[in-house]
Amino acid sequence: MANIMKGWTRRVLLGAMAALVAASAATAAPAAASIEETVRSYWSALSAMEPEKALALFADGAESIDPWGAPPVVGTEARRQAYAGLSGAFRGVTFSVVRLKITGDRAAVAWTADATTADGRRVSFDGIDVFEFDEDAMITRQWGYWDPTILMPPRSD
Questions:
Q1: Which class for 48: exposed (0-12), middle (13-18), buried (19 or more C-beta within 10 A)?
Q2: pTM of the model
Q3: Which of 81, 85, 108, 111 ranks highest by number of CB atoms within 10 Å?
Q4: What angle do CA 30, 136, 42 make, to 5 degrees?
């Protein structure tokens, strides 16, 4: 597991954790246990390829930029379409939470994934997601940091 936290992954996670401390909202935040339950339910729903369960964890009008650099996805219907595209990329996928840090109304999650792509390739990849929550521990913002090129078929030059 220590090898997972090398290089850019470790730097991004440490930066995200520093941002969590600096940016924690002064308003009442949900309990850390509630945030942890939401986060673990999210990764469980994605692993089970049950997008409706994942969608239920987002507040109305929530925004996702996942992966970072992609256009923002805002609202339930747009997120449903994004999940349909992701589901179409995999025959199966298992996400594992490697590290979870909760500060105030935010959480940073380092994760790994083992998947079989739609074309039958076995791939492993990792990333970091940062979440922001409302007072009911519903996700209001999500930023995903991972390399989607892992899903592209190998070049046959």
A1: middle
A2: 0.80
A3: 108
A4: 95
Task: Output DSSP code: residue 128.
Answer: E
Q: Which residues contact 112 (CB under 8 A, 6 or more apart)?
A: 4, 95, 96, 98, 124, 125, 126
Both tokens of 11, joined, read: 């730097």
